[in-house]
Amino acid sequence: MASKIQEGDKAFAEGQKCLKTGVLKWNPDFLGAVSAFEKAAQAYRTGKALDKAKEAFKLAADCSYKSHESYHAAKLLEQASGVCKDLNAIEEASNLLEDASTYYQESGHADTAAQMLCKAAKLLDSTNPGQSALYYLNAADLQEGEDRGPDVAAALRNAVGMFSRARDIDSLYRVLVRLKQLEQKLQRPGKLLEIAAMEVLTLLHKDDSFGARETYNAAFSIHGFEGSDQSPVLEKIIDAYSEGDTEALKKCCGDAVFKTMDNEIAKLARDLATGNKGPSIPPPRAAAVTTSAPSKLAGAQTSAPPKPLKMTGKEVAGMRAELFGESASKKEKAAPSKPPEAVRPPSQPSHSATPVQPPSPRVGKGEEEEEEVRSKPAAGGGTPEAEAPVEGGETTPGGVGTMEGEKGEDEENEFGGMLT
Predict the structure, then answer these.
(1) Who contacts 42 (Cβ-Cβ below 8 Å, separation ≥6)?
(2) Has residue 11 got a pLDDT over 50?
(3) Which of 44, 174, 205, 232 has the most CB atoms within 10 Å of its CB?
(4) Shortest CA distance to 138 belongs to which of 109, 118, 122, 124?
(5) Dihedral over Cα of 126, 127, 128, 132: its sign
(6) Do 158 and 140 contact (CB within 8 A), yes or no?
(7) What is the mean pLDDT of residues 168-183?
(8) What pTM, to 2 d.p., does this model score?
């Protein structure tokens, strides 16, 4: 044994030498390192130095991957996982198998990658069923791409068992729906009967008696369900659960028909009768949440909360007036005063252009004359004078105005001239 360990140490030192670089050696010799580390790992394993064997296998796999040999790297990781299993390091062994699955997939061996995931899932089926179920689902995805229907169904069925063991009811139901669709494509009615029974029990675990009855009614389309032994038992279970009859529920869930089915179906029925819907394995304990950051000073202690001040009513009123009065005065000082708006003089018409007047309706002769007077510019080309108020409430531009009285005089003189 000691000689094998010494042999392993010598080979391991040779592998480290292959990875060194220098003035005349710019790149590591990964291929030489793979050969040396693999030789050291085998010697360590024979000499029962399992820890050293595991590290040597991992280094050999890393060097092989860096030399673009993914398939060989996956093989070495698979051997390292076996050493971890001998050391009872189950979690590390499953992680190495997952890495090996990735390398196999990169090298174009999807079926072997799925097998690695199934091996990793099997290692965790008793200690971590939730993670085991995820490995089975990943394996099913890989095999589904290779068009391997029966292998996909087997992986999904194992995932159903792991989710049922972990009592992850929501994930269990989703995988059951996927498995049912696959079994319908494969046309295997015997498997569909078990899936129907498990789906009904899962929906009752989700407190969905309506969905369970719908699933039960839809199961009559499966060949052989109507005359099967499980059909009346499932109907009685749904009725007892809906009515809240615990005694009838216990009796139906303990029926002998479930003993001939899968073990996980029997467990679901038994837990439904006893009301055990929680996880079979306790979840990890959550970390304690600290409400405040610890002091960085050595020996610092958190101070007690301040006590309320005792003040009289006058003191409170004075403090309030002082605080709010001061803040109000500051706001007034800070706010800039707006200057008063300047009164703009009325806009004067331009010298060069005559303002355009809107058309006025034709109502009479007198108003037409008034409009002509308004539109004529002032004599001498000057600016028209400002509008001047005229008696009678009207204003005319340029001080020219027509009053009712003046109109009357003009008309009278004109009439008199005609008579003369």
Answers:
(1) 8, 53
(2) yes
(3) 44
(4) 118
(5) negative
(6) no
(7) 94
(8) 0.65
